[in-house]
Amino acid sequence: MIQVKKFIFNPFQVNTYVLSDDSGECVIIDPGCSDGVESLQLMDYLKEKDLKPVHLLLTHTHIDHVIGCNMVEEQLNIAPTAHKAGLVFLDHSTSTAQTYGLDLDKNPEVKNFIAEGDIIRFGNSELEVLYTPGHADGSVCFYSKEDQFVIAGDVLFQMSIGRTDFPTGDFDLLKKSIFDKLFVLPEETLVYSGHGPETSIGFEKANNPFLA
Length: 212
Hints:
Strands 1-2-3-4-5-6 form a six-stranded mixed sheet, with helices on one face. A six-stranded mixed sheet has the order 7-8-9-10-13-14. Strands 11-12 form a two-stranded antiparallel ribbon. It contains seven helices and 14 strands. Strand 8 (125-131) and strand 9 (140-144) form a beta hairpin. It is an alpha/beta fold. The protein has helices spanning 36-48, 63-66, 69-76, 87-90, 93-99, 171-182, 201-207; strands spanning 3-9, 14-20, 25-29, 52-57, 80-83, 112-114, 119-122, 125-131, 140-144, 149-153, 156-157, 160-161, 190-193, 199-200. The longest helix is centred in the N-terminal third of the chain and has 13 residues, at 36-48.
């Protein structure tokens, strides 16, 4: 069974997740830690639980979700994994960080790429990659069929959906991604979003005002 640990990092209140199982292996998703204090929180948790990170995964490559990539790679020797379509944002990470008052000395470099249908394995667990553009090119979700949850990034939130006013955002495409990739999942599927609280597929199908 996968254990999900959530951290809330940086001024944008990004949810960074550590997923682990009984094997001791884990994956880190969307490292939003933007300073030494936040980085220490993440590293202390890994040490406390005696976890071995084997993947650094990105739901998408907006600055608030990648600001901690360099720190994680330097300390754990794990390069970020993302969808190739998201590279367009990484090319401008340092300047974007400066715009928002964040400190980033170099653009994160993705060295491993994922696509629709890929399976991410760690320990005794696996996650299926769902390609879900609309909020941003390169957006993906990570679905655990066995444990009935999905890491949704900024695609779907409790009673809301991702913004589409950033470059490559597309409201119609985002709705299509949600209906075609997420709303076909079992209604009891728990949704871990990129910001804010958890929700479920069934609740959002019945109540989300943007998807009525």
